[in-house]
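quick one before i forget lol
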Amino acid sequence: MDKVVSSAAEAVADIGSGSTIAVGGFGLCGVPEVLIDALLAAGVDDLEAVSNNAGVDAAGLGKLLFAGRLRRMVSSYVGENKEFARQYLAGELEVELTPQGTLAERMRAGGSGIAAFYTATGGGTQVAEGGLPWRYDSDGDVVKASPPKDTRTFETADGPREFVLEEAIVADFGLVRAWKGDRHGNLVFRKSARNFNPLAAMCGRTTIAEVEHLVEPGEIDPDAVHTPGVFVQRVVQLTPEQAADKPIEKKTVRPRPDGAGEQA
């Protein structure tokens, strides 16, 4: 089945207001920027986004955030985005902070048909006991907090330990960016851009992949496939310009040694 669609606008056309989207990427690495731009242009709002973070100011999911299109975020990191923090503390955005490994496993479980699982992460904290602020009002008061979660003690090699029940995440749509993909939707991610992308692809009921290099079926070694095409419903081929546009979140460089770069 050829899953390639003609444009990002066509690929996201049925994502409506109120949808839940799982978005790949970590910081700005491996973020499906072209699909996010298409969503922004489509004008949909009231979105719930599941992603490690909300990008940065005016990049990644930050574009939707600045436009007021996000109602709720399920993420593990708030830093590097002042607008994210401002909206959260001002009561304009609901945020379910989730430990990073737990978030990854909740997404993987959603794509694997596992309804819930027990993890030791968060045991004995507000993650298990409830009370983490999900939403504030404009005065800074907590108006919605996380509920208590089911816990159970299991015997481990180090003795009994408390484990927390975490529910799987299944999103209406998954948005991912791959380095290479074929017309059947088999995807390969490059180096650290792999991050949350396979998980976002798995947990979306309908997954859309933007790919930098589109190849024909059979050109990808089956052993090299990171996400099988069974998880992907639509593929968007990026232009060379779109593929090369990869914003960098932070640049840290060393001072040049004295005389470095000078003509001999």
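fyi Helices lie at 8-11, 33-42, 62-66, 82-89, 100-112, 126-129, 197-203, 240-244.
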